[in-house]
Amino acid sequence: MFPFGKRNTLGIVLLFTFFTLILSSCAPRQSDSASEKEAKDKNVNNNTMLPPISPIEGEFEQVYGWIKKDTICYSAKLEGIYKIYAYNIYTGKHTQLYESEAELSNVMINNNQLLIYSALSEEEGEIHIIDSKGNEILSKRLESYETDFVWNPHNENELLITVFTKEWESKVSTLDIQENVLNDFPVSTPFPQWLSTEKVMYLDWNQSNPSLYAPLKIFNLETGEEKEIDLSNIYYIDQKNDYLLTISSTVKEEEAVYTFYHTDFSKQGSVHVPRLSKFSNWLVPNYTIYKDKFLTFVPKQNGNAETYQDGFELLEVDMETGQSKRLFTDMDFEDQPIQISSDGNYFLLGYYFENMLNMETGEITSLFASNPSQ
Known about the structure:
four-stranded antiparallel beta sheet, disordered N terminus, 45% strand, single chain, 2 helices, mainly beta, 4% helix
């Protein structure tokens, strides 16, 4: 879950931005085909990543994630113009997908599409959705101070959109991408997530009486039926790769309990880990999912998130069994956004995804010679 822009989104992106969805292939750049072929001959066969990337032009802004197992998506800025590129980490091929004069507030990658959101003012923003070759599919303006998006993993033409006013009042809608139509969502709760093609799930927080926990509820969009799931002490949920994750507390609130379910709520594995407290809740460290493996940072001991300085370990959990193991135990990590490639070979790591972790060797490489612009 990670920040994708310069504005403070009230933790929206860090908490819900764990979307590691993947686009299809991108159109090649024609001007350097000879050098690309040479790079491919030298690097693809032995899976060797090229040295740090030099943007085609401008100053590196940030990486947004994996488009394919060997291709990342990043942005650069030149003379007030923001440009988004696809970059093959083995061949060195750049492909421009998009450019805009508006600052990029949020970029989300899906199977065959890219969502780009720009906040035009404190009251208005604009969505652009493009395909894997940069062709625009949709452009739409929204009245919003902050905005959160959740792509339907079962239908790439549908989005859940939560918009917030400056007073943090929220409204949820569904966007039909093919029809370019917004429809009111029947449940007035922020941050719903897709559970299936016809069901969404959400934690039903009591806005008038704040609590550390909330009941997990399921809403059927076809029947209008709402159902509460009998699970205790939950404060975080997510769904990915046909697995449902809940994070809850032990009875004495000493540890975090990560529990994994299939989407029919049949319980699979679980693991207990140390937890850091915050002023009014608990820290949810960054994580990523590869097939049936859940990888996350865990603190070495319980403590206060504001004063904790003992570093984090990288934990891998088998979601079916709950068996876990520490990775790269000789390394100290920070709790930073992470995203794994679809082949499991590399992690993107850092607040701008500016670093690459080799999962075989543990080597961390800076992707760009220059630091992200502030």
